[in-house]
Amino acid sequence: MTQLARAHGATKRFGRFVAVDHADLSVDAGEIVGLIGANGAGKTTLIRMLLGLTTVSEGTVAVFGAAPSRRTRRRLGYVPQGLGLWPDLTVDENLAFTSAAFGSQAPSTRLPEGLDGDALVGSLSLGQQRQLAFVCALAHEPDLVVLDEPTSGVDPLARAHLWERIHDTAEQGAGVLVTTHYMQEAQQCDRLVLMSGGHIAARGTLDEVLQGVTAIEIDSDDWRTAFEVLAAAQIPIMLTGQRVRAVGVEPSRVDDALRAADVTARVEVVAGTLEEAMLLIEQAR
Amino acid sequence: MSEQHTFGVDRLTVELGATRALSGIALDVPPGAVTAVVGGDGAGKTTLLRCLVGEVRPTCGTLRRPGKHHLGYMPSTSGVWRDLSVAENVAFAATAYGVEPEADRPRALLRAARLDDFSDRLAGDLSGGMRQKLGVVMAMLHDPALIVLDEPSTGVDPVSRVELWRLVSEAAAGGAAVLLATTYIDEAERASSLLVLDEGRPLVEGDAASITAAVPGTLIATATPTDRTRAWRRGTRFHEWRPDGASDSADSSAVTITPDLEDAVIIEMLNRRAVAS
User: 20 to 30 A from B87, CA-CA: which of A210, B16, B80, B173?
Assistant: First the structure.
């Protein structure tokens, strides 16, 4: 498998603040790697180092086997959170501009259905703008694609379409590095890298990352009383429908609190979610 | 808490200029529960929420809502003043609602949101997640009967999102009717009931279990879908919807699966697009 991007002990300091602390990361051809972490965990800084937008303070970063440069940037497609489109230009003009900037042919890419080449980008819905940002980022057929929260704000069908494009891109041999906050999107990735406080906290497939992560589900006819009792006992809880869910506590503590207040409930240990895994990682810091 | 009303809208239609932003919407927002409005950008979520809080006048339909003092609203911009500190934001909102800023509730809410260590920080210098949490705290300072939150978790990281959901859960457990808008099905699944909007019209509604149970036809997971227009990627495989209920496939590894909420919503959207064309 061709390694497209690699960070080895990559560290970034801003004054005394360490934004990324000895991070190792690789993206191979044909795979989709999900980068997950809290705001401020260092995801964007790590991406910026790979893109060559900021230098490393320590360690190494290589893209296509070389230090990030304008040359490597040419083989890279990037969709930032802000999309990087020009709202006052039309769809066609945006595409032409991006292609010119990358020195590639005017794209043969067909526009996605419903996208009018003459429409001003500023007049498009967010979903259409996201589609266009993809087209622009992929027009020069990059070998490595970096996507920062690519489906934020779009409806489930548009999200499914965008992910189909991401999978197609990977299947054609490109490597994809994508940041997301959501479990349903994490399921779409071949591998996940979880960041916390500048460190890589966990890595592996979603199943591997979630292995051993559990939550406690409390099902009671009187869920409100159960909620109040557990909240009063300082047990970190939240609602899922009308069930109460707790994470990071022993089931016995939940049992004891409910019993002491005479609340009848079924208490069950269930598989945790990605959010709950992140919460446990943050708590352990 | 004032008396326990079920808030909501009936036969709501909103025209903004020549655009019909909402059409024939009915929604119940009961006390003691979280209700979610789901949809993409432009689906009509914000217009629905703004109608309910009295910021947009409906073209027709009825609104069931409490008086201003029993209503808490967080707009999609979070509603915090960036040039004020966390404490000043809370004090300002508290004063506006006639709540003593030094009272127990504002302090308890800030603590629950893990913002109590950042009282002196300018709201403009908070991370996106912290700012959204502050917005939610400000919307529920006065213990309103109805809390309306417009995309509180957009751009919020997983950890802050859990904290945010805890705040919302506590308000619902305390008896408030909570209505929140989101673009993510993952999140809507946690609500007691949800309404999915598509181009200003209701697409599906109810609790997650009844929505997934009502999906017509069959759903199969396969590596090679027969009809790509009715298939979408879920990880390494495709989910393919068969409206006629057929489950045959050239792919011997294909299996019939139970749709989850994400599948159910995608199927309804495909269904509607097919009918429209």
Answer: B173
Q: What percent of chain A has pLDDT over 90?
A: 54
Tokens of B186: 């993952």
Question: Helix A223-232 and helix B158-173: axis angle, to 10°?
Answer: 120
Closest Cα to residue A61, out of A3, A16, A15, A101?
A3
DSSP secondary structure code for residue A274 in this structure: H
Among B68, B74, B61, CA closest to B24: B61
**Residues of chain A neighbouring B224 (CB-CB closer than 8 A):** none
Q: Is B235 left (phi over 0), alpha (psi -120 to 50) or beta?
A: left
CB < 8 Å to A223, chain B: 173
Q: What is the pLDDT of residue B2?
A: 44
Q: Are B136 and B113 in contact (CB under 8 A)?
A: yes
Q: How much is the pTM?
A: 0.88
- Residues A93, A97, A100, A102, Cα dihedral to 10°: -130
Question: Quick one: closest CA in B to A165, which residue?
Answer: B233
- The sheet carrying B33-38 orders its strands as B71-74, B146-150, B177-182, B33-38, B193-198, B201-206
* Whole-angstrom distance, CA of residue B157 vs CA of residue B87: 23
Q: Beta strand pairing status for A76-79 and A144-148?
A: parallel
Facing A156 at nearest CB: one of B170, B185, B233: B185
| Chain B: residue whose CA lies nearest to A231 | B170
Closest-CA residue to A122 (of A159, A90, A79) = A90
Q: How many CB pairs under 8 A join A and B?
A: 128
Long-range CB contacts (< 8 A, 24+ apart) of A25-28?
A: A25/A193, A25/A200, A27/A3, A27/A144, A27/A175, A27/A176, A27/A177, A28/A1, A28/A2, A28/A3, A28/A4, A28/A175
For residue B240, what pLDDT band results from cuts at 50, 70 and 90? very high
Handedness of CA A102, A108, A112, A115 (dihedral sign): positive
- State the Cα–Cα distance between residues A135 and B34, nearest whole angstrom: 38
Q: Most B CBs within 10 Å: which of A32, A36, A39, A242, as the mutation test of the B interface?
A: A39
pLDDT digits (tens, 9 = 90+) for A220-245: 988 888 888 998 888 888 888 878 99
- Minimal-distance CA residue of chain B relative to A235: B166
Residues from chain B contacting residue A183 (CB–CB below 8 Å): 186
Sequence-distant (≥ 6) Cβ neighbours of residue B49 within 8 angstroms: B37, B73, B148, B150, B179, B181
Q: Give CA–CA dist A82/A101, Å, rounded.
A: 18
Give the ipTM: 0.82
Mean pLDDT of chain A: 89
